[in-house]
Amino acid sequence: MISTKKLILVSILLVSSIGCDQTTKGIAKSSLQDAFPQSLLNGFVLLQYAENPGGMMSFGAGLHPEVRFWFLTVFVGVMLLGMFLFTIFSRKLTSLQITALTLIVGGGFSNLLDRIFNDGHVVDFLNVGIGSLRTAIFNIADVVILLGTVLLLFATPFQNGKAPVKTPEQPVE
Hints:
The chain is α+β, with helices and mostly antiparallel strands and 173 residues long. The protein has 4 helices and 4 strands; from the N terminus they run H-E-E-H-H-E-E-H. The chain has helices at residues 4-32, 65-89, 95-117, 140-155; strands at residues 38-40, 45-52, 122-130, 133-134. A hairpin with a 4-residue loop joins strand 1 and strand 2. Helix 1 runs parallel beside helix 3 (95-117) and helix 3 runs antiparallel to helix 4.
């Protein structure tokens, strides 16, 4: 049986991550799409509208559109569904692991929504860096996925290449 505590945690994280990402993408689309890049914090942050047909750092953007659809929409959608179901039904996950996996699923699902409703493209609008040393253009979903990945690394401790016998936190029932 799935605990109420787990369902509440997953629901809040999914609604928050998808809601924040989709809201900021809507603002970016309405205010940055036909505008020059906007500089914040002395140019450390640039707000610059872009539609990315590929994955992270435009990976797969050069693929044939049909291959890109099957890989970045169908395959990613199936993987996200699998991660979501694993997160919901696994009885051995700690709350930190549940949080991490839910953030990854939430960010991934929000980008998947873009692909479905934006002709296979994801809206990106953030760029950070100093001078010519800058990141690729990204969005809030990408930040959420990265945060979830980092949390998952911390939530899954290994000692000498082996999982420890005791976990620092009891599973959420």
